[in-house]
Write a structure and sequence with these properties.
Largest sheet: 8 strands, mixed
Number of strands: 15
Number of domains: 3
InterPro entries: AB_hydrolase_fold, Fungal_lipase-type
Distance between the termini: 59 Å
CATH topology of the largest domain: Rossmann fold
Strand order of the largest sheet: 8-9-10-11-12-13-14-15
Organism: Gossypium gossypioides
Oligomer: single chain
Strand content: 15-25%
Keywords: Hydrolase
Number of helices: 19
Structural class: alpha/beta
GO molecular function: hydrolase activity
Protein name: Fungal lipase-type domain-containing protein
Length: about 575
């Protein structure tokens, strides 16, 4: 289960692909074939062979783990169910010509246009779509690692969480690392960076353009970089696959995480929420230890440390985290977050994976019914929120995404009623009402909202009476002093109605119907009607008197993108910010 084991297994499976092709060339068949030993030793079986449509060579294979006990222990949660592996160039007459042509395409950033890559991509897409809930690895060596890298990029854009092991991946640029003089090396790289930045601004502009088909396919934002420190006598040894399973391997592993222009509170809060998502994925995949876990960079980059995990009492999943600002590590970078909170309490949303999806969907249903505050998950979260505020004071942040933002919203409301005004960042908070905002016709949209306001005001007067009960505080009005930050995407049907909710309030004031709207904006029809049933009354937990509303204006191709957390730290973020206050 450790990194050395996974590296060795992945490299051995790639070697299995090399030997599969050599067995084919030399016409070795069972029981004389040499290849099976390379995967059977690790309790894998050959699931599918990938054959090039030009020279009929075997360039890749899909391996499936066997469901039985073995020394390597494939019962572990971190072990893959499938591994897609690709070989590199083979220097024999049967395959050399085709492989070298693909090497040349790789150098020209055109490998993705080749039929071999398209075959590989199609096989990977089919595997991921059929076995989307299984653990799948991508791996390759040399040319094969370039194919794996491209597939990994594409699958990540589709929303899949891909684990990839790339051995000797080609870096398609001048090999500056080969220069012995450190000063000259740094000078060349600095000059190159300045020139590239200048050209990028000149050609693409400040906001950037969409990526073209000739994008630098070898560049990636983040990676675990393992450097083999052992001396190699020649290029063949330095570039060989065999070094990666060597018992005498001496390496240095480093995590490099890219954070583009993330210095504002919005991006930091969103990154801390992402940290909770990745904490739970680490748990599901049994990734333990700082070298293997993927979550820590999401908070360490902003000088926070993990203080406590919030664990659901029903399914054992991690649904939240308490982060503590690390003053010692931040002293040299205090300008990054000058008004840093002492603590940040963050909550994730729904995870679409079998270990947690059942529990999360039940909570989504409770949220839709205005019953989330009665769940054991929220009560546990509220206990930690109260304890933190009582111990530290109000210098904390609350933040969450989707279902998690609904929890943070309710927690923020309860704290406000106690007199604590907590800085709160809510990403894609669900608006529990008909999404009128998706109606394309402005006149129809306004008509629906106006009618709804009149109906709600009339129901309120009929059910609650024209005057509030003596001595009873209006909970909606009591929240006026609290102004949370709401982040919504205009293409997200779950939260876009917040835009219409606040805009309609302003329109009603402009046409002289402000008194109707001041009654209507506090209530929902569902909660009004439920109050007529004994023990069924509820508060409309999604309604707010005041908020900083940030609307993402960038077009989104699908719901997953519009509702995703990653949009809130995007460097090309384009938004409109509005302050709405109840009067």
């Amino acid at each position: 289960d450790n990194f050395h084991d996974r590296r060795s297994v992945a490299a051995s499976l790639v070697q299995g692909v090399y030997i599969l092709e050599r067995d084919r060339q030399e016409n070795r068949k069972d029981p004389l074939a040499h290849a099976p030993a390379w995967w059977e030793f690790f309790n894998f079986q050959l699931f599918h062979i990938l054959v090039d449509d030009v020279d009929n060579s075997i360039f890749g294979a899909i391996f499936q783990s066997k469901p039985c006990n073995f020394t390597y222990n494939h019962s572990s949660q971190s072990s893959p169910h499938y591994v897609v592996a690709f070989r590199g160039t083979i220097n024999t007459s049967n395959t050399r010509s085709r492989d070298l042509k693909l090497d040349f395409l790789c150098v020209r950033n055109r490998l993705h246009e080749s039929s071999r890559f398209q075959q590989a991509m199609q096989a990977a897409e089919s595997l991921f779509s059929v076995y989307r809930n299984s653990s799948i690895w991508l791996t390759g060596h040399s040319l094969g690692s370039a194919i794996s890298l491209l597939i990994g990029k594409n699958m990540t854009k589709m929303g899949y969480n891909v684990e990839a092991y790339l051995f000797n991946p080609p870096f398609l640029s001048a090999p500056v690392e080969g220069i012995k003089s450190e000063r000259l090396k740094h000078g060349i790289r600095f000059t190159s960076s300045v020139v590239k930045a200048g050209l990028a601004f000149a050609v693409k502009g400040r906001s950037g353009l969409q990526r073209s088909e000739s994008e630098p396919l070898h560049l990636i934002p983040s990676a675990y970089l393992t450097i083999n420190l052992r001396h190699s006598p020649d290029f063949k040894h330095a570039h060989g696959i065999h070094q990666w399973w060597d018992n005498g391997f001496i390496g240095l592993s480093e995590l490099h995480e890219y954070r583009p222009f993330v210095t504002d509170e919005k991006s930091i809060a969103a990154s801390l929420v992402q940290g909770v998502y990745v904490l739970e994925r680490d748990r599901q995949k049994n990734r333990e230890g700082h070298q293997v876990c993927c979550a820590p960079p999401w908070w360490e980059s902003f000088h926070f440390r993990l203080n406590h995990r919030l664990i659901d009492d029903v399914d054992g999943s991690i649904f939240g985290a308490i982060y503590e600002f690390d003053i010692n590590t931040s002293s040299a970078h205090h300008s990054q977050l000058q008004n840093a909170p002492n603590y940040v309490i963050a909550f994730r949303g729904t995870l679409n994976t079998p270990p947690s999806i059942s529990r999360d969907l039940k909570l989504d249903l409770l949220c839709a019914c205005n019953r989330l505050h009665g769940s054991s998950r929220f009560k546990l979260a509220m206990k930690f929120v109260n304890d933190t505020v009582e111990r530290i004071g109000p210098n904390i942040w609350l933040t969450g995404h989707s279902l998690g933002s609904a929890m943070a919203l309710i927690a923020g409301k309860e704290l406000t009623m106690k007199g604590y005004l907590i800085e709160t960042y809510l990403f894609n908070p669900p608006f529990l009402s008909t999404p009128v905002e998706i109606v394309k016709y402005p006149v129809l949209k306004t008509g629906i909202r106006f009618t709804s306001s009149v109906v709600k005001a009339a129901l309120t007067m009929a059910i609650k009476g024209p005057n509030p009960k003596p001595g009873k505080q209006d909970p909606f009005t009591a929240l006026c002093s609290w102004t949370p930050h709401l982040f919504v995407n205009q293409n997200d049907v779950l939260c876009s109605e917040y835009k219409g909710y606040f805009e309609h309030r302003k329109k009603m004031e402009e046409i002289g119907a402000g008194k109707i709207e001041r009654i209507s904006t506090k209530n929902s029809i569902v909660c009004l009607l439920s109050s007529l049933v004994p023990n069924m009354s509820c508060e409309p937990l999604h309604l707010l008197p005041s908020a900083y509303l940030t609307i993402n204006l960038r077009p989104c191709s699908d719901f997953r993108t519009a509702h995703g957390i990653e949009q809130w730290w995007d460097r090309n973020f384009n938004a409109k910010v509005e302050l709405h206050q109840f009067k």
